[in-house]
Design a protein that fits this description.
Layout (H helix, E strand, L loop, with lengths): L1 E6 L4 E6 L7 H14 L2 E8 L5 H17 L2 E5 L3 H10 L6 E2 L1
Parallel strand pairs: 2-3, 3-4, 4-5
Antiparallel strand pairs: 1-2
Helix pairs in contact: 1-2
């Protein structure tokens, strides 16, 4: 998994590429937390993520919780069908902001 970032005036977008599994999720979590230190609104572009594990879901929940505690926003965009299905089945699609 690799992550690159794009920044605009009031938003920071993290573009995630590759599988978010147990090995990659600590890096994703770390990048999300670092992004919130730089900007209150973080967008996670998951267009190139074919798979997410339960450990990856934990990283997303930590992102959502961090946004709430900082009065910011955490948005997931362009999630693949398989990722959206995992979010739907686990009920997290109702907790996370997914577009």
């Amino acid at each position: 998994m690799t992550i690159d970032e794009t920044r605009s005036a009031d938003k920071l977008q993290l573009n995630v590429h590759g599988k978010v599994d147990a090995n990659a999720s600590p890096e994703l979590q770390n990048e999300i937390l670092k992004a919130f230190q730089k900007c209150p609104s973080v967008i996670l572009n998951m267009q190139d993520v074919p798979y997410i594990s339960s450990a990856g879901l934990r990283a997303l929940l930590i992102g959502q919780k961090t946004a709430g505690s900082k009065g910011g926003k955490f948005l997931i965009i362009n999630a693949s069908e398989s990722v959206v299905e995992v979010l739907r089945v686990t009920g997290l699609q109702k907790v996370l902001s997914v577009q």
